[in-house]
TrEMBL record:
It comes from the Bacteria. Pfam families: DDE_Tnp_ISL3. This is ISL3 family transposase. Residues 2-57 form the Transposase IS204/IS1001/IS1096/IS1165 DDE domain.
Length: 65
């Protein structure tokens, strides 16, 4: 049965497929978020505590979990 063969081929990838459905972010968007965090990290060099740095990240990406 072709449908069963197709389902068996997808079986190893089910976690990735479900993750894509749950979090509909494209890799380009994720790369943009990572880039912004890296820039903020360079700018934050010398901060006394990491709590302030994480607050800055949360403020930059409000509305996102």
């Amino acid at each position: 049965d072709p449908l069963k063969r197709f389902a068996n081929k997808l079986a190893p990838y089910w976690r990735g497929i479900l993750a894509r459905v749950r979090w509909p972010l494209h890799t380009g968007q994720l790369e943009g978020i990572n880039n912004r965090i890296k820039v903020m990290k360079r700018m934050a060099y010398g901060y006394r505590d990491s709590e302030f740095f994480f607050l800055k990240i949360k403020a930059a990406f409000h509305g996102n979990p």
